[in-house]
TrEMBL record:
This is Calcineurin-like phosphoesterase domain-containing protein. Residues 9-224 form the Calcineurin-like phosphoesterase domain. It comes from Planktothrix serta PCC 8927. It comes from the Bacteria. GO terms for molecular function: hydrolase activity.
Amino acid sequence: MTVVNIKPIKIAVVGDVHDQWENDDTLALKSLGVDLVLFVGDFGNEAVEVVRKIASVDIPKAVVFGNHDAWYTATEWGRKKCPYNRKTEDWVQEQLDIIGADHVGYGKRDFPHLQLTVVGGRPFSWGGPEWKYNGFYEERFGVNGFAASTQRMIKAVQTATFDRILFLGHNGPTGLGEAAEAPCGKDWSPIGGDYGDPDLAEAIAYSRTLGKTIPLVAFGHMHHTLRHTKTRPRQRLITSPEGTVYLNSACVSRIRETPQGKQRNFSMVMLDQDQVSEVSLVWVGEDFQVIETELLYCSTQHLAQSTSML
């Protein structure tokens, strides 16, 4: 479906939560006047009650889950540390049930009033070039490798109502750089390497062959604070030759304590027709006013670093 002429859309991307979500976060979103909220996951270690709070956010939203959201289920070492009886409880499924139709991992959600579709990447992704935790993905999603994973995303694209598509993943796609400081770069020993999701990259490339417009790919997982150096942060944003903005929103911790009280961050994206016009990282104070803004991208000033996609 072709996008009609509509007003600019204000989108909030919520980076890795890691147990930091309060009722005031919802009030902050409302004070920001957002039209759509995108959650990149990692709400906590299978943190059902945090997910319940996210589900209650009464603003149009789309959600994917991160690796921490299957912390006690996907891996053998996690299962050994599991704090609940896995024979009688299933916190992963409980999270999926709570979020319901807002979950777009391996799926999509159409937003007719915004004239766009959000397509989700691989849910619960750990990232990297190797296929991991096959038992988990086969049991939960019937997926047994990167090819099958890509096909799940492609199917979602094919059923999208709108030609304007936003991709939402926990981890970003491959092709954004191999440096440790790149948006999906490996910043632990051995340093360096592209730790993006190959299946997500394939799905995005396929979408373009269908003539889809992809203004934004939003993700998290790889925290802005680097492990190997504190002299600089991770690169948060890259634009492709096609005009797609790739945004890493994982500013962790997303709530900070200051003498002036709690401050909470959101990545704010302005979408104007088929293009992102501006991206900022904002901090909201206890009076729900923006007290700090870091401009990451402005289409008229070319503030973002452009790169050729691999």
